[in-house]
Specification:
Blueprint (H helix, E strand, L loop, with lengths): L17 H10 L4 E5 L2 H10 L22 E5 L7 H10 L5 E5 L1 H5 L20 E3 L6 H16 L19
Parallel strand pairs: 1-2, 2-3, 3-4
Helix pairs in contact: 1-5, 2-5
Length: 172
């Protein structure tokens, strides 16, 4: 069989939107930073372990520096003393970035309705996905990652999100 005249790309013109290509790359390579403070962090560890294996969904490269992460997973109770630290971590993350509030405590303060506990992290940082449960199952975290990936497909590549968000710790 003579393949000398066969050129696969000579006659093919591939055109696509740059957003689709960039978002495809982002979708398959989320780099989470875990702000784990309580039992939800143990559930995140189970999700990253071999049984649930979050790496199948493109989120296995855990980052321990906010400057290298694009997905902030807040897992557990956040006190008012921890709030400025969480805000600083969020501010240090490069755009685009996404936030997941994992569990009842991160979402609403949980059953800690007192003066020391932040009643939901959306008071200081914008949240993209909330995960219910106390603690939520690993499948719920995987579903949140898949939800972030679905949102990624619809975003513009070079836009800045949450520019109108003002939290309690933002300068007015």
């Amino acid at each position: 069989m003579d393949l000398s005249n066969t050129h696969l790309l000579d006659d093919a013109i591939v055109t696509t939107k740059i957003d689709a290509v960039v978002n495809w790359g982002r979708e398959a390579s989320l780099w989470p930073f875990v702000f784990g403070t309580a039992c939800c962090a143990i559930e995140f560890m189970a999700t990253a372990a071999s049984r649930y294996d979050i790496s199948r969904f493109g989120a296995e490269v855990l980052r321990f520096s906010p400057r290298h992460a694009d997905l902030l997973v807040v897992a557990g109770t956040v006190s008012h003393k921890q709030a400025p630290i969480l805000k600083q971590i969020y501010d240090q993350m490069p755009e685009p970035k996404w936030v997941v509030a994992m569990g009842a405590c991160a979402s609403t303060g949980g059953f800690y309705d007192n003066y020391t506990t932040l009643q939901g992290i959306d008071e200081i940082v914008p949240v993209d996905v909330y995960i219910a449960g106390c603690p939520p199952r690993p499948e719920a975290l995987i579903d949140a990652v898949l939800d972030i990936q679905r949102k990624l497909k619809r975003e513009e590549s070079f836009s800045v999100k949450h520019t109108d968000y003002k939290g309690k710790l933002d300068d007015v």
